[in-house]
């Protein structure tokens, strides 16, 4: 298992004192001190204060009390991490590094691991969390201890495991918007040496908004998930854990809402949905109901063997299948666009993801009093067959018949074959009728091999005068092979002859076949000095590498160059005031070459053009501070602060929202057409964005968490605790152009809860409210080139409810 937290307490800004900790203390002095936290972040058990890694850990209870059901819910309790989403993709950023694309196919800058296995698809990172023992957030490049390299950091989700004791729990949560969340788990021994655990969860909720056309909800939830685990202890030194999980979603969550026209005041580029937009920001008007349908399952086998007292072996094999379909109308409007109705192309989009991935990681771990080392080998393969289409839809309530389509000179067999439909068929319960105006059926494959390792040497073995000083040496060799094919069909409408279409564009698989191979070596070196048992200083230099990726865009032969990062970090971890306070701080500076970025621009035969490219260079400087304090026996508080100055050093690119860059109408002419917004007018072309902020990264973010044990006698020898949270993020830009319209304003959010727990810990109840001020917070914006508008997604409004749980 990669970088595993062993026994978790309240880690700094993010965790609660009620997390799992070392054995309870018995004296008054001990009970007023900060709980010790035992981790295995360097492949051996250590106090978190002795580990030279910037890591935040969230316990099961902290996640439950904060009503964290998915990674995006971590927004308010992990200040150094920023989460967004669009097109049903998670946008996770750490220290200014993350997912900068909205087309499927590329790897994310921040890796997600579930029980040690890498989850490749950004879409799959939006699935729910359940029966979780802890979540770990590691910041900075990760590669010398990981199977899959990560340039920005890693989020590790560790599920609860089978034990030799029969145990389980059940929990129900009721909330506004008719929310109902149920979660159950049970596990224990089957016979000597064999244990099991089964867990399941359901999530249902009405929408935060509605579709005034269909009357259906938008941004609702309907999810089901289950996980089963079977552990075999063959001998005291050899065990095998088998795990399988399934996730199902069918709802209208993550809807993109109308924000503003992309080109206000430019007549020739008026948005395609004028007159049909919803008036409430959380509503979405559309003649076709938006929706997301997902099926995902995964199997993991983890073999562990102690070869000797100092040498152990771990092998993690994983298979994951992910299928998802996203339906939406890209004009975000009730206007029904269709050539035969208004001369405009249909804007109904469907994106289907079909991904199978397999990985295997072999680790050897060597651990003595003075040397701790890890050596690993890794294999990863993912095959994707995404289909992205924008299509014809029903005509005046009736499907376009094959006869009408044939009259319109649409090559039916070719369109049906590419898009995977038959004549007159529908999908997703909406009126999406084939063939498609634009259809891309991509074949994308990534195969990766890696050898990695890291060793920590205690220099005290050389001389007693060097006691407390240690060095870290690590490295990773990566070899990746990327293949891309983007066959498609583009059916172009002829406005001068409505019943005739221009010749189609039909790039083929062979014509778009592209392959590239990438190799890189990324080192890591560091030194740490344990000045005394309560003070640790460290410095780490690390590099990260993310291979180039293809894109799913019709006719594309693009495989961008890799991203590489070089990072310097210094840190201090201190325990103060007779162990009543821990303060951990880190400062870092990095340079990132070849940042992979995606955008779309209006125009062209499809109505949009995808741009996938490398920015030349970005850099960042930042400081992170986390603390946990227990000033009295009944009051605890923690906090975190993150300051990040991440900017482009060099990026020459085209602006999708500059009208001069969008073809259409009469081209610019200084004499006959001096319109400054005409295609080709001065002010178009490439812009140099050096100095601009990177995406999805606030300059300043902080969080505060407090807990107060209330002095009231409660039934069943129980206790009552008041919890409060405050979190703040400064302005966040969602594009590299630093436009306010493509950003989230600075915000501060407050949460509160009242928690009851019985004396034996079996019963736990909570009254809670999140986003008390009902702040309307954007989680992302995206320039929708097809609809010529800017879309937006939002974080949840004010939610409140009650949670009841029983544990045995």
Automatic annotation (TrEMBL):
GO CC, any one term: cell outer membrane
Record organism: Brevundimonas subvibrioides (strain ATCC 15264 / DSM 4735 / LMG 14903 / NBRC 16000 / CB 81) (Caulobacter subvibrioides)
Entry membrane topology: Multi-pass membrane protein
Domain TonB-dependent receptor plug: 48-153
Subcellular location: Cell outer membrane
GO biological process: iron ion transport
Leader peptide range in chain numbering: 1-19
Main location: membrane
Family from the record: Belongs to the TonB-dependent receptor family.
InterPro entries: Beta-barrel_TonB (IPR000531), Beta-barrel_TonB_sf (IPR036942), Plug_dom (IPR012910), Plug_dom_sf (IPR037066), TonB-dep_rcpt-like (IPR039426)
Flavoprotein among keywords: no
Domain of life: Bacteria
Keywords: Cell outer membrane, Ion transport, Iron, Iron transport, Membrane, Receptor, Signal, TonB box, Transmembrane, Transmembrane beta strand, Transport
Ranges for domain TonB-dependent receptor-like beta-barrel: 249-771
Protein's name in the database: TonB-dependent receptor
Key word Metal-binding present: no
SUPFAM superfamilies, A to Z: Porins
Listed PROSITE patterns: TONB_DEPENDENT_REC_3
């Amino acid at each position: 298992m990669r970088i595993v937290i062993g026994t978790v307490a309240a880690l700094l800004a993010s965790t609660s004192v009620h997390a799992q900790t070392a054995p309870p203390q018995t004296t008054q002095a001990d009970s007023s001190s900060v709980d010790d936290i035992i981790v295995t972040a360097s492949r051996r058990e250590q106090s978190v204060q002795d580990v030279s890694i910037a890591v935040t850990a969230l316990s099961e209870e902290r996640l439950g009390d904060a009503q964290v059901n998915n990674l995006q819910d971590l927004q308010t309790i992990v200040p150094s991490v920023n989460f967004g989403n669009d097109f049903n993709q998670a946008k996770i950023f750490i220290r200014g590094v993350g997912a900068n694309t909205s087309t499927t196919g590329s790897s994310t800058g921040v890796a997600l691991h579930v029980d040690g296995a890498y989850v490749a698809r950004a879409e799959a990172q939006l699935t729910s969390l359940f029966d979780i023992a802890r979540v770990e957030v590691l910041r900075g490049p990760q590669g010398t201890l990981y199977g899959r390299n990560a340039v920005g950091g890693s989020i590790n989700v560790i599920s609860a495991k089978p034990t030799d004791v029969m145990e389980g729990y059940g929990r129900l949560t009721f909330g506004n918007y008719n929310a109902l969340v149920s979660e159950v788990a049970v596990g224990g021994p089957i016979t000597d040496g064999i244990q099991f655990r089964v867990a399941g969860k359901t999530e249902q909720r009405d929408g935060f908004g509605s579709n005034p056309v269909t009357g259906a909800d938008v941004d609702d939830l309907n999810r089901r998930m289950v996980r089963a685990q079977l552990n075999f202890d063959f001998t005291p030194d050899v065990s095998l854990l088998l795990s399988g999980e399934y996730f199902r979603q069918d709802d209208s969550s993550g809807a993109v809402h109308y924000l503003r026209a992309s080109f206000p005041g430019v007549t020739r580029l008026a948005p395609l949905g004028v007159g049909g937009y919803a008036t409430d920001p959380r509503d979405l008007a559309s003649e076709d109901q938006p929706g997301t349908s997902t099926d995902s399952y995964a199997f993991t086998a983890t073999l562990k063997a102690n070869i000797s007292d100092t040498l152990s072996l771990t092998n993690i094999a994983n298979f994951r299948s992910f299928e998802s379909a996203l339906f939406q109308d890209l004009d975000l409007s009730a206007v029904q666009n269709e050539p035969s109705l208004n001369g405009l192309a249909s804007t109904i989009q469907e994106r289907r993801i079909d991904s199978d991935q397999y990985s295997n990681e072999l680790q050897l771990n060597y651990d003595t009093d003075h040397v701790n080392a890890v050596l690993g080998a890794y294999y990863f393969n993912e095959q994707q067959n995404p289909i992205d289409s924008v299509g014809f839809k029903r005509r005046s309530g009736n499907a376009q018949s094959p006869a009408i389509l044939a009259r319109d000179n649409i090559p039916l067999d070719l369109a049906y074959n590419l898009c995977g439909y038959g004549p007159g068929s529908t999908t997703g319960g909406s009126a999406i009728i084939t063939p498609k105006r634009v259809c891309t059926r991509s074949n994308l494959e990534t195969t990766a091999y890696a050898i990695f390792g890291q060793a920590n040497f205690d220099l005290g073995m050389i001389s007693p005068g060097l006691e407390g000083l240690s060095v870290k040496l690590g490295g990773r060799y990566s070899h990746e092979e990327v293949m891309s094919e983007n066959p498609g069909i583009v059916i172009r409408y002829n406005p001068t002859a409505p019943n005739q279409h221009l010749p189609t564009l039909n790039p083929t698989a062979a014509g778009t076949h592209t392959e590239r191979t990438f190799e890189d070596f990324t080192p890591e070196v560091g030194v740490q000095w344990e000045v005394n048992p309560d003070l640790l200083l460290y410095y780490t230099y690390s590099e990260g590498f993310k291979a180039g990726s293809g894109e799913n865009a019709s006719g594309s032969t693009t495989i961008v160059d890799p991203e590489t990062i070089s990072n310097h970090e210094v840190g201090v971890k201190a325990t103060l005031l007779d162990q009543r306070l821990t303060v951990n701080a880190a400062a870092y500076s990095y340079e990132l070459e070849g940042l992979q970025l995606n955008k779309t621009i209006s125009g062209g035969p499809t109505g949009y053009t995808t741009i996938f490219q490398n920015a030349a260079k970005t850099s960042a400087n930042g400081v992170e501070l986390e603390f946990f304090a227990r000033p009295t026996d009944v009051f605890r508080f923690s906090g975190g602060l993150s300051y990040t100055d991440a900017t482009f050093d060099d990026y020459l690119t085209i602006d999708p929202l500059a009208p001069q860059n969008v073809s259409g109408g009469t081209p610019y002419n200084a004499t006959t057409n001096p319109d400054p917004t005409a295609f080709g007018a001065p002010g178009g072309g490439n812009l140099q964005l050096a100095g601009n902020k990177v995406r999805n990264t606030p300059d300043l973010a902080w969080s505060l968490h407090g807990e107060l044990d209330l002095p009231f006698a409660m039934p069943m020898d129980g206790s009552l605790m008041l919890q409060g949270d405050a979190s703040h993020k400064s302005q966040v830009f969602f594009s590299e152009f630093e436009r306010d319209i493509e950003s989230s304003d600075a915000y501060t959010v407050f949460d509160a809860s009242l928690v009851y727990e019985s004396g034996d810990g079996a019963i736990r109840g909570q009254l809670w409210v999140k986003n008390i001020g009902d702040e309307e917070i954007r989680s992302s914006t995206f320039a929708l080139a097809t609809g010529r508008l800017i879309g937006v997604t939002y974080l949840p409004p004010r939610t409140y409810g009650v949670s009841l749980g029983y544990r045995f």
